Amino acid sequence: MSRIVIVMGFMAWTLPGMAAPNGKLLSVAEPAGYIARLLINETPFPGERGYVSEEDSMATMRALLLVLDARSNRIPPGYSREEISDTRSSDVIDIVTAGGVHGQVAGFYRDGKGRPAMAARVHARVARLQGIAGGGEPGRFVRLLDYAQALASAYFKGVSPSPDLFAGITRIPPNKVAGRAYGWMTDQDYYHPGGDFVRIPDRLGGRLGGNRFFTLVRRTAEAAPLSASGSPLVTVPN
Asked: For residues 185-217, b (16+ Cβ closer than 10 Å) or e, as one string?
């Protein structure tokens, strides 16, 4: 597994439009700037709990963005977008902010005027990481910040991260599964989204950056029933 991650980390630097490293991010008001901050906030940086390596953190960012893309564009047969993402909208920002501060992605929501917003703790962490990145010669912090922004910018230009490590998964015993990841949580045994989510095991690369990724049980193509509680199947706790 480590060999695959390292190879992908090397491939990652071929992203189109990758500029010289500087650690700067686009405005929060821009979709690519907002999503870049989500990737940064959900990924460990050097010295933080869950950090393994620069390559692992980059792979984490790719996997996170692919979850958002799956919820937006790749709803599996038998499910509805509303069931998975708590919204009928296919817009990535709508999916991220669905449910408010403690909704789909904790700390990412829309403010009273409908603008994408972030919790104070998210602003503070990103600012701290940028402060570290700007304190010396460009290094790991700058590269990770730049990588998050490059991924997000490329995505909004129609370029998704590739390859998808989880797309080809068809079975996680005893379940047949839909493939792709549709959620993530902090990697603790007591965290599980519930419903028809299936934990992607370590042998299939399901742990990245201290997060556990989840796919879905494969359903028939019949219309998906909404859960009785009306709650989405995907949750992402702190």
From this structure: bebeeebebebbbbbbeeebbbbbbbbbbbbbb
Alpha-carbon dihedral 130, 69, 59, 36, rounded to 10 degrees? -10
| Chain centroid offset of residue 43 CA | 9
Q: Which DSSP category does 135 fall into?
A: T
Q: What is the pLDDT of residues 145-164, one digit of tens each?
A: 999 999 999 999 999 998 89
In a domain, 124, yes or no: yes
Query: Residue 46, CB half-sphere, CA atoms under 13 Å: how many?
Result: 13
Is-contact 8 54, C-beta < 8 A?
Answer: no
For residues 47-74, give the mean pLDDT: 96
Residues spanned by the domain of 114? 2-164
- Helix ranges (H only) for the chain are 2-11, 31-41, 54-73, 81-85, 92-97, 120-133, 140-155
Which residue's entry shows tokens 């992607």? 200
- Is 197:233 a contact under the CB 8 Å cutoff? yes
Is 104 domain-assigned? yes
Domain count, the chain: 1
192 is a domain residue? no
In Å, the largest CA–CA distance within the chain is 56
pTM confidence score: 0.85
Lowest mean pLDDT across 76-85, 94-103, 150-159, 201-210: 94-103
